User: Fold Crp/Fnr family transcriptional regulator from Arcicella aquatica.
Amino acid sequence: MTPNCNNCEFKNSSLFKNCSHDELNHINDSKCFNTYKKGQVIFHEGNRPLGLFCVFNGKVKVSRLGSDGKEQVIRLVKKGDTLGYRSLIENTKYSASAIALDDTQACFISATEFNNLIDTNVKVASDLMRMLAKVLGDTQDKLVHLAMKPVRERLAEALLLLKSTYDDKKAEHFSISISREDLSSIVGTAKETVIRFLSEFKEEGIVSTRGSEITILRADKLLQISSLYD
Amino acid sequence: MTPNCNNCEFKNSSLFKNCSHDELNHINDSKCFNTYKKGQVIFHEGNRPLGLFCVFNGKVKVSRLGSDGKEQVIRLVKKGDTLGYRSLIENTKYSASAIALDDTQACFISATEFNNLIDTNVKVASDLMRMLAKVLGDTQDKLVHLAMKPVRERLAEALLLLKSTYDDKKAEHFSISISREDLSSIVGTAKETVIRFLSEFKEEGIVSTRGSEITILRADKLLQISSLYD
DNA sequence: TAATTGTATTGATAAAAATCATTTCAGCGA
DNA sequence: TCGCTGAAATGATTTTTATCAATACAATTA
Assistant:
């Protein structure tokens, strides 16, 4: 049931790819394997981080809630990704919450274990640094696009982000089941506004929907729409 | 003229606070001291980073330009701050430009020198990591506020950001000379919109202006306005 | 000091998006 | 299969913000 780190699907692609066999064994012995139902909170804004999550399966959103109840998604997390490292490094409370978008499984590594690892393995530390730099760059992109692009463009971009993050290439066209509420908090707009532009995309044959499931038929068109302002 | 690292005002507060005397000497010997006039470009979006800047004096904005000419400020940089590290760590082209908001002086440390330092001094590397985490957190805050707060709130926040970044506490009230164009690209809105809300703030006795100079009279009120949605 | 130039300001209008209200649809349990 | 429920979709309207146009002001220089 619980995956073994030395045998993990993400052994060569995760943050821990430069760990030794022994280091992985050590992590494996101390880690904790958790299962989350769709919609379940993995960690909550304001709480103290006790360790790091390593997503084994599923989809996770990292988001913040405004006082008016509006939500903004900061990051999408997929299997193989680590989760919750920023607060851990800064040693501050979580500034956002992580919520499962699907049934999700994740390993939990304690803070001491993690800190010990990055203190002793320089390669992991420098991989972590590069990861932070990468995520910072992505976040800056998001910021700029939010400020400069209209909703239609941002929606196209969000759909492409979902595709590039979660496409397993098992089907001809990428499909995802996502509530319009969630989609709108990725785009940073109102639910109804997202629905309206989605309807436009449907009329233009770019996407199709069935209930909450969205299928991307023409990723090329989305790319074109999303980069009108680049 | 050129400041000596081992005697620098920011020796104990900069990214290099955990460098040894010898390391600082080494940096000092290889560094390059540059002067930039107000409005001058320090580095330009799309170029390859050749090293790291350490701001000695002045004010700098890091911003990106959209294809329509609109600008979005990503970060404000003050004396003692380092500049240009993200692209350097990721080893990618600059994704944004750095432009002097005032006459500015900065030391330039070559990429090899810098990489050598973080490879050999673990403390500097871990300070750098914490700095990245901090800046990432700040950027996420910006993103969320941009998505959730209306312009009035964001303007109040931007004025407080300017104050907290550049206030040298030499005067009773904090003043800054900033073009409405620059201010609007910090807030992420149109110039005229910023001016309108500034005028409101003036009527309410929160700020006063003289030409492009803005004086903050009631920071408490700005804080109140900016946090309506928190 | 007067003219000039660029920026700040104000006003009028248009566009974009949010909000509120209503209808339609899909999934689900009885 | 039929309701039932919650989410998706559409419509009408309001609010917010952007844009365009005109004026006022401040700094600079002839």
Remarks:
- The two ends of chain B are 46 Å apart (CA to CA).
- The CA atoms of residues 58 and 82 of chain B lie 13 Å apart.
